[in-house]
Amino acid sequence: MTLEEVMQKLEAMGTEQTKKTLLRHGAKEPLFGVRVGDMKKLVKEVKRDQQLVQALYDTGNYDAMYLAGLTVDPKSMTKERLQTWVKEASWYAPAEYTVASVAAESHFAMELAREWIESKEEMVATCGWNTYSNYLSIAPDEQLHKEEIKRLLMRVKETIHQEQNRVRYTMNQFVISVGAYVPELHQEALEVAAAIGKVHVDVGQTACKVPLATEYIKKIEERGSVGKKKKTCIC
C-alpha cells in the first residue's frame, strides 16, 4: 500500500462522532476520527513497510500517527527518530500513548525516559513519565533500577500537585505502575499513593477521571496480579 492509499482508507473509516469525541479530548487537526478497532484492520498490511510507517507519522494526521504507533517496529527506531516523534506530539494522546509505548520498547527506553521527565515542555515530560511506566510493565525485575524508582516515587510525593496538568496525570500513573509491576516496591507505592491522595487534572469537556492510585493498586493486589508483566505495551 502507498501512503496515499492508507490515508484514503483512514479517511473512509473516519466518523464525525469519533472526530468530535477526540476533539473534546484535546486532539488537534488534521484527523479523520477513526475508531481504533477499525484502524487495526490495516495493521498487518502496513506493518510490512516500515518506511510507510514513518511516512504515516510524518503526516501530522492524528489517525495516521496512531496507526504508525501500532505498526512500527520499536527496535528499529533510532534515538533521533524518537526525539522527532515526541516533538511532533501536539497533544497528550500521541505523547502519553503512541510515543511513550514505542519508546518503552525501543533500545533507548530508559535513556529517553530520564531525559524527557526533566523537560519543561508538558507533552515531553508527560511522555517521559509514561515511557518509564510502560517500561516497568514489560521489563524483567532484574533490569529495573530500584533505587532510581524509589527516588522518583519520592519526587512524585513531594511535587505532583505543583506540576503541569498532564504531568500530574502521568506521575499518578507512574505510582500505579510501580505498585502493579514492581513487587519489591509495591508497599512503598501504596504509601506514596495514600500520601498524594486525589490528583486534580483538567480533562476538558470529557467524563474522564483521574484514577485514585490507592484504590487502583489495591484492586490489582486483590486480583493477585502484582508483578504480572505484559508482553507488549503497544495497543
TrEMBL record:
It comes from the Bacteria. CDD domains: AlkD_like (cd06561). This is DNA alkylation repair protein. It comes from Brevibacillus porteri.
